[in-house]
User: What shape does this take?
Amino acid sequence: MGMAAEPRFHVLAVDDSLIDRKLIEKLLKNSSYQVTTVDSGSKALEFLGLHENDPNTPFVSPNGHQEVEVNLIITDYCMPGMTGYDLLKKIKESSSLRNIPVVIMSSENVPSRINRCLEEGAEEFFLKPVQIADVKRLKPHMMKAKNKDHEQEIQENQEKQEVESEESEKSEPESQPPQQQQQQQQSNNNNKRKALEEGLSPDRTRPRYSGLTVF
Assistant: This one.
């Protein structure tokens, strides 16, 4: 029986240039990453399961399941239609995808563009052509995001348990008074029965004539 294969990180590469897509795909696969490539920002959003016009509305596939998990997105900056910066903004606006690391690529070294992307939440800004040394810088970002998701899941479970515990504690006093009332009622009935029995005792109902002579 063979051992289960270690899960690989999944990278979504977005670039309108076929040559650049093939290059980044080769570099990523050589680094043992699972790779999906698309040629536009809108197709990237579709693959991620989001509607382009509403980033908070998840797309559900016909079989009822969410799309495949993506651990990192690397996208070209200059693309027709939706730019890499626009795609970055939509990812960070999505409540379900904002934790996915995003890396921007560009053949132009424009400081204002780089700073704008980094301020918007991009993890890295690579200058083309992307090198193997650049690809090696991706893994720490994916590890950090995965650990963050794990910590968030633990925190959510703890909060859920605390809420359930508080609800359980609140429900206990509600069930206690009827039980106490029943015990009190039973005690009152016993006292009444005891008093009634004492009231019917011959010693209490018949006068005593000891010490008197009756003619």
In short: Confidence is low (pLDDT under 50) at residues 57-66. Helices lie at 18-30, 41-48, 84-93, 111-120, 132-135, 139-199, 202-205. The chain has seven helices and five strands.
